[in-house]
Amino acid sequence: MDMETPKATACPHCGQPALEELREFRLLRRVTSDCRPWPAGGRLCVCGHCGIVQKIIDAAWRREVRDIYAGYAVYHQAEGAEQAVFEPSSGAALPRSLRLLSALGDAVTLPRQGRMLDIGCGNGATLRAFGRIAPAWSLVGTELDDRCRRQVESLPGVEALYTCPPDQVPGSFDAITMIHVLEHIPAPGPFLAALLLKMAAGGLLVLELPHHAANPFELLIADHCTHFTASTAAGLLQSAGYDVLVAAEDWIPKELSLVARPGQGTRVTGKAPRLRRGVKGREGCQPPAASPSPAATVAGALAWLAATAAAARQLAARGDIALLGTSIAAGWLFAELDGAVRFFVDEDPGRVGKTYLDRPVHHPSQVPEGSVVFIPQPPALAAAISRRLARPGVVYHLPPGV
């Protein structure tokens, strides 16, 4: 699926002449979705009508994305092991897919048997997790290339890995998952509409998306086309012909989790999963009204990012510092600091003891006494992490706004 380069003021999602470019975005360094620093540039816009935040998909953006994907390496910081999600206060960790599917299991009851398609399956993390909770299901994955074919097709329950567009995969599906995929697609509305033809009646579509309102660093990802809130994601799904069952901001920190099914009147066949009682859904709902000024909200986020980079540079000018994390935020700030980082700190056991951007990765318990560690996270999360990791002899420096 693709779209033509949008006109100067026309939103490619709603068609209204309401796009406003935030030129201050061009001054910030960027980062790739596989956590590699990327040069400043790109064009970020906000639609004043529908509120969707989006990149301008022009020839320059397409060239950059081709370069990014040519060297793409999923979860390279942990040699392919899926990223762990940490509970901010306790530090309890669980792989993202297991945490997501656990929350999904609290929201719906899946049939004992069915067929599931994971779009953009990478090395099979979601397929592996889904197979554990639904072992009688048949599983299928799609990817842009077949570099992970052997790994994916060796998983229990997996039929095949396809490298064709999803609407060309044989058969229909009782569940389709897209974990951090939709934000990469230049025309997400038509893409979602085409998936309706692959869904069984009542089949579930499960989307996991970055949430820029909760995590401003997400705006800096160079290869993300669209940046969502719960409202804009739900509105897009409804426009594409879906009923939204769940639009959650709390299943995974800093992320959006949406569950939808084909809207009434869609021509599909099959057995429908059942929504559990007591779970707050948004079936057939209208998304909440957009902010009175989406552009002002995003401009504020960009200003906070610039202030965060400035605070880290000021701290680094006094001596060596370390950065907490080995993902998007830390990768971006490493670039903003021109590499003036002594080491990284991470709680993920799959990353500790390795290197990231040619710097060692230490567990918090291994941080040398006298170290200063900057926490590039949204203010509330940074404060919670600092309280949990605090110990004598190590200073955890918080970003602006804490």
User: What general outline do the C-alpha atoms trace?
Assistant: globular
Count of spatially separate domains: 2
What is the overall number of helices? 9
What is the percentage of strand-forming residues? 15-25%
CA(first)-CA(last) distance? 42 Å
Mean pLDDT: 88
Q: Give the class from helix and strand content and strand pairing.
A: alpha/beta
**What is the helix content?**
10-25%
| CATH architecture field of the largest domain | 3-Layer(aba) Sandwich
CATH class descriptor name of the largest domain: Alpha Beta
What is the makeup of the main sheet? Answer: 7 strands, mixed
Q: What is the CATH T-level topology of the largest domain?
A: Rossmann fold
Concise synopsis of the structure shown:
The chain is an alpha/beta fold and 402 residues long.
Overall description:
The chain folds into two domains: 78-275, Vaccinia Virus protein VP39 (Rossmann fold, 3-Layer(aba) Sandwich); 295-397, 3-Layer(aba) Sandwich (Rossmann fold). It has nine helices and 23 strands. It has helices at 59-70, 96-107, 125-133, 149-153, 188-195, 230-239, 294-316, 328-336, 379-389, and strands at residues 19-21, 30-31, 37-38, 44-47, 53-55, 84-86, 93-95, 108-109, 115-119, 138-142, 158-162, 173-179, 199-210, 226-227, 242-248, 255-262, 274-275, 322-324, 344-345, 355-356, 359-362, 372-374, 395-397. The strands form six sheets. A seven-stranded mixed beta sheet has the order 11-10-9-12-13-16-15, with helices on both faces. The chain is an alpha/beta fold and 402 residues long. The protein is globular and about 60 Å long. Mean pLDDT is 88; it is low at 1-8 and 266-288.
